[in-house]
Write a structure and sequence with these properties.
This is DUF1963 domain-containing protein. This protein is α+β, with helices and mostly antiparallel strands. It is about 10% helix and about 25% strand. The protein has helices spanning about 10-15, 70-80, 200-210, 220-225; strands at about 25-30, 30-35, 40-45, 55-60, 70, 105, 110-115, 130-140, 145-155, 170, 180, 185-190, 230, 255-260, 290-295, 305-310. The strands form four sheets. It has a six-stranded antiparallel β-sheet with strand order 12-1-13-14-15-16, with no helix packed on it. The chain has a six-stranded antiparallel β-sheet with strand order 2-11-3-7-8-9, with no helix packed on it. It has a two-stranded antiparallel sheet with strand order 4-6. The structure holds zinc ion (2 copies).
Length: about 300
């Protein structure tokens, strides 16, 4: 069954009409385990990659933080066993894989998103494919997170696709996405309260404080969708908003893509398509169950992206 966001229990626009100018659309991806091909939009699936273009690697070597190292084969095997396949669950974390971080680390596919599938696709000119890869190890200067790299392509330019992508010798198991098909769905989101104009922020925050009962659904619960998505707004509930300004030109950046630890905001998530919506269909965990937000510069797609973990 196609996952679809249920009607939300609170219409914030009715409650706060001044929010009208602050709505933004996002495309929820609703990843679910599957067998996507290079012709499909996917999370953790194979990429349509030009055979004559070198596969990107990370050469941070000893600057990586060594934590929960595994091999791609071991991660695939343990996930298959957890999913019900027979076999021994061999814990490889006891093996010394640490020296492997000195080698160039092949990046792993995180997302491949065709413009035709993604209502909130943004990219340069006539590009029609967004690809997000990352180095599947911890980078201290990225807040101990994987480091993403973003590509925009014209599929018409790719006449000879790569047949098999190289795999990294070593990964952190939390950062190797399981292949998932996606079910894109456009939704409406509103900014994290601290990013609203002061008067609106005061209204929204006051309404939250009126509610003593934790069970009551408020602005926080319905303003940003959880899970993997394109566009929309970041949920800054971990640290409160940090300025995300382009390193090249200083322009405030906009949210491009979200890689999430969970497709739900807790068990009672109002955004969950159904009761059995999985928490982590992709196998990704960012920090202690947070999201990794990838921002882009609205002034130029050529300027570097930046990330925030929340
Ligand atoms: Zn790296
Ligand atoms: Zn810029």
């Amino acid at each position: 069954m196609t996952p679809i966001t249920p009607p939300l229990p609170l219409d914030v626009l009715e409650l706060f009409p001044d929010l009208a100018g602050h709505a933004a659309t996002a495309t929820r991806l609703h990843p679910r385990p599957g067998a996507p091909t290079i012709a499909d939009s996917s999370i953790g699936g194979p990429l349509l990659w030009p055979a004559d273009e070198p596969w990107p690697v990370c050469e941070d070597g000893g600057h990586h933080y060594v934590f929960q190292l595994s091999t791609p084969a071991a991660v695939h095997r343990s996930r298959a066993i957890i999913a019900g396949a027979s076999g021994e669950l061999n814990d490889l974390t006891g093996q010394d894989l640490g020296h492997l971080i000195e080698q160039p680390i092949s990046l792993v596919p995180v997302a491949q998103l065709y413009r035709r599938d993604i209502p909130d696709y943004t990219g340069p000119g006539d590009t029609d494919l967004l690809q997000v890869l990352w180095c599947p190890l911890d980078h201290p200067e990225e807040g101990y997170n994987p480091r993403p790299r973003v590509y925009w392509r014209r599929t018409a330019d790719i006449t000879s696709p790569l047949s098999t992508a190289p795999e990294p010798l070593v990964v952190r198991d939390d950062y190797l996405p399981a292949p998932c098909v996606v079910h894109p769905e456009q939704v409406v989101e509103y900014p994290y309260p601290d990013l609203l104009p002061e008067d609106l922020q005061a209204l929204v925050t006051a309404s939250e404080e009126d509610e003593d009962d934790d069970e009551v659904i408020g602005y926080f619960e319905v303003s940003q969708a959880p899970g993997f998505k394109v566009g929309g707004h970041a949920n800054w509930s971990l640290t409160d908003p940090a300025p995300m300004d382009c390193a090249e030109c200083g322009t405030p950046m906009t949210l491009l893509f979200t890689a999430a630890s969970s497709e739900r905001n807790g068990r009672e998530c109002v955004w969950a398509p159904s009761e059995d919506t999985p928490f982590t269909p992709t196998g990704i965990t960012i920090g202690r169950g947070y999201s990794l937000y990838v921002f882009r510069c609205p002034a130029s797609f050529g300027h570097p992206t930046a990330t925030a973990m929340q």
